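the two lines:
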Amino acid sequence: MRRRKFIRQAALATGGIIAAPYILPTGRLFATTNPQMAEHVVFVLFAGGVRQQESILQRYLADSQQIDIEGNIMYNMFKGAPPDLKIAYGTTLPGGQAGGQPISPILSTTLEEQGTLFAELLYTKGGTGHYGGLSAGVSGHYGLTQGLRQRPLHPTIFEYARRFGGYKATDVWMVGNGIGGSVPLLNHSEYPEFGSKFGGNFIAPIVTFGAKEYIDGFKVYHPDDELDPIRKMQAFLNQTFLLQSGELPGINNSNEEKEDIKKFIKNTFDRLEKNQVAFPPVTDNGDAVTIGFATEVMKYFKPKVTVLNLSAVDVCHGNFTGYLKSLHRADHGVGHLWNVIQNQIPEMSGNTAMIVMPEHGRNLDHNPITDENDWFSYDHNGDANSRRMFALMVGPGIPANLRVGSESNPVGDATDIVATMAEILGIKPDVQGAGLLDGYSKSLFDRI
Amino acid sequence: MQIFNTKFYAFQFWLLAIILALTVSSCKNKDYIYGINDVPISPNNAEKNKQKTNEQYLNISYANLYQKALSPDRLVDLSNVITSLGDKQVAYEIIIAKMMTDPDVKLPSKLEVDADPGKFIVETYKRFFVREPTQAEKVFFINFLKSNPNITAEHVYFAFATSTEYYFY
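prediction for all of em together
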């Protein structure tokens, strides 16, 4: 009997040693069997607060300034002819009218034609604030008690992807347009059993690469002769400290991943120096620059999940002309991003889904502020119009040229994107099974 | 009867004298003088349980490496760099690695380290961790420096400035 017991235990131990490297962080041996629609998913938080009137409804000045001029200023994303009068959203040619030169389209076929457009989707709960909207977008839950300077109250897509998809930290990235507005907190929640150990990497590239004086040219230690002994000394110091005290909370990048991030930063500084960063043709605002750096993140890491936050359209609080310009540039940037993914990143080309959604809308009625064109500005304080949004998705397996929902028949919710991304990655049953999405949240595929 | 009384009084007298002598002598205190040896007081690493803010980390690491204070402008810019990266340790390592390229960083020479590695280790622990090394820690580093002759003070300082204990106070 003892010999049998010994053989059984030895067999179990051997099996455990063989299987251990394949056990997911969830404790399961295999990833879910749901088929993946794409290996990579990109979520563009077309953020800052976008009115349906100037975006999907293509009303240009007609529904905001009582000037009867309509037209589409987002022609990489949506079908429709641009306005032909009072052009103020483009670039300024020398001696020309301010903003009078529209930016040429990048995509020959609009994203609407390539994919599925949820034309009228609702932000159903809570106030329409930026951080609440961003947090709802990445966590699939409104988190009605969500505060600023507080991580999302519910797990984010990064945590779901790493926990249920088994991805490593450098497979999931949040690219922020800056470090204000609590954006750096969106890469993970502090929800028990999720949290930082499943968090995504975050970068606000405008800040990181704007600090050339302080970090460019940082010393790269030789991996064998210098870094290896340094890591051994660190390991000893950390070991003696851990025995006594605590652990530094943070994202679980392995040492190799940390070195990879450093290498990426160094490479990007070099590519900046040589003008090799794939910025959009027009880069006269922060969103366009952020999109350029986001393509560098994608080229280097080929992330499975990328969330990209834009926000320049928020100038609408006091500058409607600036808002129109920012919308036009955000569309230009999204077109550029899709173009780079398809044509410059072979590992992601044809294997990436992209979803574009604002974090919320803007008010129906203007505020008293006028800009250089005497056009009125718009805030977002939770009225019905600020709850109206759109979502556009494109990529493998996503029906082309399909429009779902209308003003009289809204379809979809602001919290739907996490479940949608989970479906694309093949982890929807796990994510929904965790029971932490908003009660009304669904995958957009389930609403078609 | 008279003789008995005289003897009795003599006995009483001597008894009283002896009790008095014993009482007086027993009340005499001996004066002790205690001396105290100098003992350096520095925090044990187990007491470090508060994480430094980005600003604290930057101010302290700059002071440790440059032996002078960080300017407020530079502090704000460097703090923003840390916030712009999700993995704080990567941010700290990049910033320290950039500082290490600056000739103004105060580093002991290889000769100084090799001349007395024990002294170098004790001073490094005091500089970065504000404490003495334990005997085991000292022995580890002396042996490590001996078996890795290419290691310089820069490598040791980098390891200390990016170790977990350094992020706490």
